[in-house]
Amino acid sequence: MIEAKIDRYRPTTPREYTELNASTFKKMIMKSVDQLREHQNAVNSINVFPVKDGDTGTNMLNTMIGVKNSLEELSDNSFETISKELINAIILSARGNSGTILAEYFRGFMLEIKDIQVLTGSHLVRALKNGSNNAQQALEQPTMGTILDVFSAAAKGADLAHKETNDICKILDEALKYALIALKNTQFILPQMQRSQVVDAGGAGFLFILDGLRAGVSDRNSKISEEFISKPMIVQDEELSFQYCVEAVLKDIGVPIEELRKKIENLGNSFHLMGDIDLLKLHIHTNRPNSIKEICQDTGRIVDWKVDDIQEMQKEYLTNLQKSQEHADILHYNISRSVTKNRIAVVTDSSSDISEKWLKQYPIFIVKMPVILANDPTDLAERVTLKEFYNRMATEENFVPITSQPNVKQFIDAYEKALDIADIVLCIPISSSLSGSYRNAVQAKNKLDNENIFVIDSYSASLGVSILVHIVFELQKAGKDYLDILTELYAIRGRMGQYFIANDTKYLFRGGRLTRSRYILGHILHIHPLLQLKDGYILDTGRRIHSTNPEKQVIMLAREIEKFITRREPLCIYIVHSNAEAKALKLKEYLEKNNLSKGIIEIAEFGMVVGSHLGPGVLAIYYA
Questions:
Q1: Are 53 and 186 contained in the same domain?
Q2: Residues 218 and 249 in one domain
Q3: Which helix (H) or strand (E) holds 157?
Q4: Helices (H) and strands (E) in the chain, counts
Q5: Hey, is 469 helix, strand or coil?
Q6: Which domain holds residue 297?
Q7: Would you say 577 and 605 are in contact if contact means Cβ atoms under 8 Å apart?
């Protein structure tokens, strides 16, 4: 049925176009902007991720209009000049999360063709691939089920077509076909889209851009229309972690870009830095716009500054949506749910601290993250016990363990082993904000090019990842298919409680996971902050303990459980520690004595991967 829908829109090409000059390429860009402009409101109407604010189409259009205006003024129509002008213009005009990702895509695309004289099918395929790769690599937390999937699919379709033809029109036809299929699949991956029965708005916007590029080759009419688009079926209000969207353009940067990144990246999410020291674009969702502005002013010259209240934008979008009664499908094809009830295996990394009991019971494949010393590459797990590991961290100044992220090949090997015994592989590595493990897991999936592999950013570590892994198999035992399981994983990931208190913050500071001010509080002043792992980031809750009194630590953590169970009963509670079993037992006793959990409370210990960053004496709770 999907193929039938696509074939209906496959155009006929009266002649071959094997080479295009720069003037024709510029016309393709102009046509893509016109096509997106025509469908801007439709794209806005299905904007439910990452924030329900109804501006994805507008942001993408404003991003592309900046490019169009700049190119219209060009008199030199060479690929070198067009590339330089487009890249500068798109940095300046990029708006919102979707616009910033689109800008990264076109930066990668244009860098691939900037030195050519004529555009061939081979050049186009490489540009589509480089655009996709650049957009994905630029993101701190690349999320599958979004525009990234559509980028990748378009490149794949173009590559397959190029094996059969050099005709640029036919290559773009196949790119559009694969992009359409990938866009359709986005409604089954993230819970926001699955609940609302829509596809990713950014992906839909890119589909119109791609169709405009195709139409611009030979002045053909567009073949993608709004008959595919309608309002979401179900949209729920949700609490946002961050209230403001901040965008800034900086010039005359006086510090290394990585230094600026370190100062800002922990102040919010959806963080992007694009450009170089001559021209830099910043985008972030945050609660501290004034702090970010001060950092930017200390870093360079602000030439553009914009702050939007995304909480208010979400309220307005939801209000307008509720007034509308139009309901239809958007690329919503009927698929047989029965075929999705397949055998599932899970791949994760060794930071997950999966228990031996689960490894024997379930098809779980662990990708090793070695822990070493700077002067000895031997994995510490092979030569010291966990107790000795923590004792040496506490007593030996030169005992500084270092973790290493698993490489792409390790994930490929794990996927292949998992696929030998399962139909579907779910990979759940440590949070992408804490390690490059997630990124390498995604790259491994892309190299295998297997649609039965799904990589989920856990937003967690240690027992938080274990909870998600365990839930996979519990849901499968309950008869859920993998699409339902994916939806549940994303939903539970957002509701998970993850809090911890460190006796000494020097370990977190040393590993770059904590700011200097928080380090001073904990290490020098002995004021211990209650820290939270939220959306994959270590955040300060603002609450403090002014001593190392274990009783006070226990009560503070117990109160987080108490707040949670006033709203719902936890499925499970894990108390996790690093060589602090006495405190863990006190917390368990307190929870049971005060009837704060009717479920199972288990005690576990942080393994060496996470423990090397936390240090000894940490007490944590994980619950879902």
A1: yes
A2: no
A3: helix 147-162
A4: 25, 18
A5: helix
A6: 244-323
A7: yes
Instruction: Name the strands in the sheet holding 244-251, side by side, starting at the edge strand that comes first in the sequence.
Output: 268-275, 280-286, 244-251, 301-309
Instruction: Pick the closest to residue 79 from 41, 26, 38, 18 (CA basis).
Output: 26
Tens-digit pLDDT profile for residues 20-31: 999 999 999 999
For residue 454, is it within any domain?
yes
Q: What percent of the chain has pLDDT over 70?
A: 80
**Which tens digits make up the pLDDT trace of 474-488?**
999 988 888 788 878
CATH code at position 513 = 3.30.1180.10
Query: How far is 158 from 547, CA to CA, in rounded Å?
Result: 62
Burial 512-540 (b: 16+ CB within 10 A, else e): ebbbeebbebbbeeeebbbbbbbbbbbeb
Q: Tell me, what DSSP letter sits at residue 39?
A: T
Helix 550-565, helix 581-593: angle, nearest 10: 40
Backbone angles phi, psi at 294, to 5 degrees: -65, -40
What is residue 323's DSSP assignment? H
- In the Cβ-directed half-sphere of 64, how many Cα atoms lie within 13 Å? 29
The tokens describing 151, both together, are 């980028």
DSSP-derived letter for residue 226 is G
Burial 468-493 (b: 16+ CB within 10 A, else e): bbbbbbebbeeebbbbbbbbbbbebb
